[in-house]
Write the structure tokens for this entry.
Amino acid sequence: MNKLFILTCLAAALCFKAVAQEISIDKGWKFSTGDSAQWASPNYNDQHWKSIDVSHNWEAQGYPDYDGFGWYRLHMVIPSTLKEKAYLKDSIRINLGIIDDNDEVYLNGKLIAKYGGKRGPITTSNYGPRTYVIAAANPAILWDKENTLAVRIFDTGGDGGMYGYKHSIGMANVMDNVNINTDADYIYDDDKMGLSKTIRLITTDHYLFKGSLHFTVTDPEDNKVLFETTSNADFAAGKPFKYTFNIEKLRKKSYLLSYTFTDEQSGSTITKTENSPYLLTPYASNKPRINGADVYGARPGNPFLYLIPATGKRPLVFEATGLPAGLRLDHATGIISGAVYQKGTYPITLTVKNNQASKTKKFTIIIGDNIGLTPALGWNSWNAFGLSVNDAKVRAAAKTMAGKLSQHGWTYINIDDGWEAPQRLVDGEIMANEKFPDMRGLATYVHSLGLKMGIYSSPGPRTCGGYLGSWQHEDQDAQTYGDWGIDYLKYDWCSYSEIAPKNPGLDDMKKPYQVMRASLDKIQRDIMFSFCQYGMGDVWKWGAEVGGNSWRSTGDINDSWGSMAGIGFNQTDDGPYAQPGHFNDPDMLVVGEVGWGSSQHKTHLTPDEQYTHISLWSLLSAPLLIGCDMSRLDWFTFGLLANDEVLAIDQDALGKQAHQAFKTNDYQIWIKDLADGSKAVGLFNTSDKYQTITLNRHENDLAQYTKIRDVWQQKYVVGIWPNYITKVAPHGVVLLKLSK
Ligand code: GLA
């Protein structure tokens, strides 16, 4: 990370509504892959370069799977009226949207800013929003003349380029160093249907801010302002202004909360808006209930571990009849362990009791060749911690999972990249680095909670984060994982591109996965095998044959609507290939506190977008891997992850993936067949306004489906035959289960 004569203002910038005059630089960009020092120069003739839309990554615009250097160039006039109209006249601000991953910015041939490097140890986390501030007196700026802005980007993998919204050049404003900090948790009052929160106005400037804060609550359905208030608000560096709101009688929907601060002296204003969270998932009853999938697969002779997921007031007492020889149940914890040598399908009856009631459930254990019969439910360190993952963070995740989520079927605790030591032992054995002093001990701890542990590697010499991969050590690594007690391996292509031929054919793509498959097969352990190669070669067509339990079908997700919806709603070609034991993986969840590094932030997805994310991933039979800091699991995120009827759609034993049944520019209907003959139906509003969506049961083979259940709210709803008509929030969903 390098600072030249610049000040970077990263994360917050996107949330601000700037009031200073700005010019948009959203349009007119030219693009070329490759790299040349000449491309920085204003004299270089870029007329033959292709035009590019900077609202989307380059992959989406004719450069699929392209990693490496790419240059963007734009010619534009920077008018001096910008400066004249501004209250502060010292600096200009250049907003480049999101850069994926590292950039250098040249204005008229002069390097004016850069962020990240070509290949640092933490290259992937350089992805993010970029706003650069440079002095208005910088001689690189040609006021009122044509300027050439050239952005050199190095993409380390996955999506790449300069994208997102509101690329602009404007004067730095008095508000640039003001932050309306809304990070505090919302306090939710279920009885009063109330929300409260304290927000803070913060600055790092020497300027004394004096003015007012205007707070409004608007219903986005009809744009009516339900509540508004104005308070005096003065603040300065080190002396923030705090404002606490308390609103009640809310409905189960998201409202638009808006905070506007106006500074008296300069007349400048800054606004931040957010969408309020709301809870749909009912609280679990005190009465016992057995959750989780109806089937579970294990291989003969391998260590067996299954925690019966059950809610209800503790203590619970667990019983199981029909367990095959070799398995024993711990009646107090609900952990079934042992090993079964005889292949077969074993129907089991599980019972769980407490002092209030008793509940049974039919369950099937299949001992055979196939594991992962339903998609994995777990946590992975990447979206939260990136390469900063360590033993303590993993233990904290395991503890939260055991305390709150394993009752709903959540099982895997997966360590992503960043655990590997810099060197192998002399005999080639892989070691964990100092952040993981005792990998075996960690796995033992995770297992003691009834949970399972996963790990990450690459078939190449290096992982995507630059750590050691398994290249030419596959057998040895599989053996080590087995010794440690690993239950899940994410195997990430990364530097295998240096090993594979330049334009790999299908066989080349399959090869590294076949090699590791063979190595895993030599281990007496059920290790879920998760391919990560971003969908190359239509992996869904051959992932099962090569022995993958899941395969990533896309590049890396991030916590934006564009990324999540772009991935989720495009899972159509791969749909027919999902089956028990083999699932498409549209990447990990981006709900809760995410960050891909040492600091985390609340996901930038709105609450409705998060309901969409979990509903869509469940309809897609996707592995659900929570990507947040589990030690900061708030009530809203917990509600998203602990809805047993939603999870049951993901975990359905039929293992089918939903198909897109209907699509307009504003909404989509996705339908999934379920094992009991019923159908899960997602009514998704992909627009940014409320939509009325009609599900017509004369269509889509739904003629006999008379019962409609709202899955998130876990209650039956009525539709006037043959339709079910409902309003759906912007970017939101209504998830239904239809039965005969
Ligand atoms: C790739 C993968 C991510 C993550 C990182 C780790 O980008 O797609 O999910 O595993 O590598 O470096």
User: Anything to note?
Assistant: The chain has five domains: 21-171, 176-275, 289-367, 377-657, 660-739. Residues 124, 157-158, 382, 416-417, 463-465, 492, 532, 556 surround alpha-D-galactopyranose (CB under 6 Å). The two ends are 60 Å apart (CA to CA).
